[in-house]
From TrEMBL:
The keyword Transmembrane applies. Keywords: Membrane, Transmembrane, Transmembrane helix. The keyword Lipoprotein does not apply. InterPro entries: DUF1206. This is Membrane protein.
Amino acid sequence: MIEGAARAGLTARGVIYVLVGLLALQIAFGDGGEQADQGGALQEVAEQPFGAVLLWILGAGLVGMALWRLSEVVFGAAGPDGGTWKKRGASAVRAVFYGFVAYSALSFAAGAGGSGSSDGRSRDVTAKALEMPGGQWIVGIGGAAVAVAGLVIGVQAARRKFHKHLRLAEMSRRMRRTVDFTGVAGGVARGLVFAAAGAFAVRAAVDFEPDKAKGMDDTLRSFTETPAGPWLLVAVAVGLVLFGVFSFGMARWRKV
């Protein structure tokens, strides 16, 4: 049961990242009407034929992802170090995150809409946090943690740390090369997005301006303002699509 939930969840994650990457490509090429985040991806699904049915399926998969991560908190993850508090804590964070994404998908499916853009949520949460005693420190430390997590995600992807989670002996050479390519390129792009979003949160804390905090959509759009122009966003967007493809491979070959 848990294995099925995990594989369904990884597949649903793949769909979300492929759609976010495609939406980001539209922004890079001047057609940026949709949000390049989970909300935009869910809206894209909702607009397809049988969109409501697809959203229910996607939401069920994401619920499976949250339950799988929750089971890792309770029983420990696969692998020799899966029962450590570090691994359990990371699984708990992932369980909460995917539970929220699942709620958004199911809300769309039920016709209630989503919970707003990631940018609006980021600004609202940042504004409330800054009003608390020691709010600047809370936001700054939180942003720094997200930025460091992004760097770790990128470095681990580049070092192919995901190999330890895969049943490599059962994979063909061609499949292994495909998973390696999508895992490295996709993981580095995903890590870059997290690192940039964390950096914006730190800046919002230092300047005491919640509007400087950015969700995924605004973070992706900010890549067009670099010296590389829209081409950096193109590279990151393609990377996110590749991470979605990598998630499909993980759904098939991951140890659970």
